[in-house]
Amino acid sequence: MSHTAHIPSHRKPRRSASKLALRAGVAGGVLSTIAVAGAAGPASAEPVTETIEMPTLGSLGTDLSSAVAASAEASQQEALDQSLEAQEAAALQTAAKEAKKAKAEADRKAEAERAEKARQEAEAKAERERAEAEARAEAQARASRDSARTQLTSTSASSSDSGSSSSGSSAGSSSESTQVSSGTAASIVAFARAQVGDAYVTGGTGPNSWDCSGLVQAAYAAAGIDLPRISYQQSSMGTSVSLSNLQPGDVLYWGSRSGSYHVAIYVGGGKYVGAQNSSTGVVERSLDWDPPSGAVRLL
Fold first, then answer.
1. What is the domain extent for residue 255?
2. Which of 295, 248, 297, 255 lies closest to 270 in space, CA to CA?
3. How many domains, the chain?
4. Phi first, then psi: what are they for 264, rounded to 5°?
5. Is 101 inside any structural domain?
6. Is the overall model pTM greater than 0.90, yes or no?
7. Is 14 a domain residue?
8. What is the pLDDT of residues 254-282, one digit of tens each?
């Protein structure tokens, strides 16, 4: 170890450059003030006794701190203002998007409502046109049936007059009777076919709605033949015939002969006319569509 190591240093602490500059500036300012005052006054002037206060280091630090604080506050306020402006801009943009979305949704709903209204109007128009077409068809069918009934009535009256005025031998009487029967069967068949398309109504006896026995009774009545009203009573009359030997005008029945629950009229060609049910009304169908149980001949 050096023999001078324990000797304390006599050097003064090194001052920072900023402090030295600050002190030099203050001293320079004081000297400049004194020199100006001395040069301005006359030689005989009284000595200057006014004391000039120079700023101290402490007041300079306070002013500097206030300036820094004010600058920081201003910067903070500016940053806050910018943040508020950004938030306002974002809120306006969001509101604009929401308004645009709401308008699009309103337009979509309005368009859907217009389309639905147009569809309903089209359906209503189609329904009206269909109803009018059905009404016209029904009127035409009714007129056709009325015409057929008028012709049947005339034919039946003519057949009756011919039968009442006939005379001659037994052979001639037999031939005339056969012709009357044929004419009667044709009248029955024509009347039954004229009702095809009419409605089925339980207990219906015409003129535009029928049940099965009501139609059979009316068809025979058009030919001048009285039948009971009930189906099993009708099928109990006349002579039983085979389904392979049917003739137009024969009464078909379903069930037993004395206990039938449904009747119809054979119209030839393997077909019959009957008031089936409320779904089909009066129809002309093949025997194969609903084969009967048996048949009776009343002519």
1. 166-297
2. 248
3. 1
4. -155, 180
5. no
6. no
7. no
8. 999 989 999 999 999 999 999 999 999 99
